Amino acid sequence: MHEDIEKILITEDEIKAKVSELGQKITRDYKGKNLMLLCILKGAMMFLADLSRAIELPLSMDFMAVSSYGLSTTSSGVVRIIKDLDYSIEGKDILIVEDVIDSGLTLSYLRKVLLDRKPASLGICSLLDKPKKRRVEVPVDYTGFVIDDLFVVGYGLDFAEKYRNLPYIGILKPEVYKF
Ligand code: PRP
Ligand code: MN
Ligand code: MG
């Protein structure tokens, strides 16, 4: 285990099992549709890579980079689009793939922006959900794990851009981010 991690919250095996379960559900629900996975960089990249391989359907993928946290541990509430989509989403069944929903600010902003572009449908799939931190409601269609308000890293999730490569989701030791 990484020396900055206090405890593993979700193991690599638990993530694998959940991703496969979500992949099967999405496969059933999106059969015959024009599915496009929309990965929200950077946090969702691991989840996108694994989830997309658990979906047994033809699909396309695109990427958006937004940032609300920057280098801090709490959301600033200001969402910036750093990289937009490459193509139009008109008529496509878009499934947003996120690593975590916290305040909900990132997704509620993105939903507004994307709905204006007239997709056939717009769904949300998030590996983690922290409902206690919610400041605005967002309709989540697929959730991996509901967790408490803990600062977690790994499997795409960072603190100051570090720890994204950990294969599990762990709780950071307080001394690493409190000074
Ligand atoms: C994190 C996380 C979600 C968002 C959730 O991204 O990956 O995208 O914040 O927070 P919210 O529900 O309070 O808006 P971050 O802005 O840290 O960028 P990153 O994915 O590049 O780490
Ligand atoms: Mn993110
Ligand atoms: Mg981040």
Automatic annotation (TrEMBL):
It comes from Calorimonas adulescens. InterPro entries: HGPRT, Hxn_phspho_trans, PRTase-like, PRTase_dom. GO terms for molecular function: guanine phosphoribosyltransferase activity; hypoxanthine phosphoribosyltransferase activity; magnesium ion binding; nucleotide binding. Its cofactor is Mg(2+). Belongs to the purine/pyrimidine phosphoribosyltransferase family. It is found in: Cytoplasm. Pathway: Purine metabolism; IMP biosynthesis via salvage pathway; IMP from hypoxanthine: step 1/1; Purine metabolism; GMP biosynthesis via salvage pathway; GMP from guanine: step 1/1. Its EC number is 2.4.2.8. Purine salvage pathway enzyme that catalyzes the transfer of the ribosyl-5-phosphate group from 5-phospho-alpha-D-ribose 1-diphosphate (PRPP) to the N9 position of the 6-oxopurines hypoxanthine and guanine to form the corresponding ribonucleotides IMP (inosine 5'-monophosphate) and GMP (guanosine 5'-monophosphate), with the release of PPi. It catalyses: IMP + diphosphate = hypoxanthine + 5-phospho-alpha-D-ribose 1-diphosphate; GMP + diphosphate = guanine + 5-phospho-alpha-D-ribose 1-diphosphate. This is Hypoxanthine phosphoribosyltransferase. GO terms for biological process: GMP salvage; guanine salvage; hypoxanthine metabolic process; IMP salvage; purine ribonucleoside salvage. GO terms for cellular component: cytosol. Pfam families: Pribosyltran. Keywords: Cytoplasm, Glycosyltransferase, Magnesium, Metal-binding, Nucleotide-binding, Purine salvage, Transferase. The lineage of its organism: Bacteria, Bacillati, Bacillota, Clostridia, Thermoanaerobacterales. Residues 14-159 form the Phosphoribosyltransferase domain.
